[in-house]
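quick q for whoever's on today - can somebody do inverse folding on this one?? i tried earlier but teh output was garbage lol. tokens:
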């Protein structure tokens, strides 16, 4: 269960990062509220998962999911560059996250 919660929390990290960008420095209400809600849920899920998963592994997996998810949303929906080197680097992050799970 802890791993499922950790993955969901990582996805919520992507949501709060995108909401933070869309809040325009907290000048837009709906994205600002989305940021606060998803941030709290993401942190709460991380805290729950860390009861069973070592902090080093849990934190890196959480950050990795959030970072890769945010980069993918940026490339797919926000017109950020989607070059081969960027995609290769994201695959390296995914490989690291998977490796931490496998060798946990």
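ok took a stab at it. sequence:
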């Amino acid at each position: 269960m802890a791993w499922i919660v950790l993955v969901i929390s990582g996805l919520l990290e992507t949501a709060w990062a995108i909401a933070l960008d869309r809040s325009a420095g907290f000048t837009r209400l709906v994205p600002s509220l989305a940021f606060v809600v998803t941030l709290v849920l993401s942190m709460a899920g991380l805290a729950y998962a860390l009861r069973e998963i070592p902090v080093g592994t849990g934190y890196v997996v959480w950050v990795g999911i959030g970072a890769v998810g945010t980069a993918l949303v940026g490339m797919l929906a926000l017109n950020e560059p989607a070059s081969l080197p960027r995609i290769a680097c994201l695959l390296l992050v995914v490989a690291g996250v998977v490796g931490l799970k496998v060798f946990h």
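fwiw The two ends are 15 Å apart (CA to CA). also The mean pLDDT is 95. so keep that in mind when u check it
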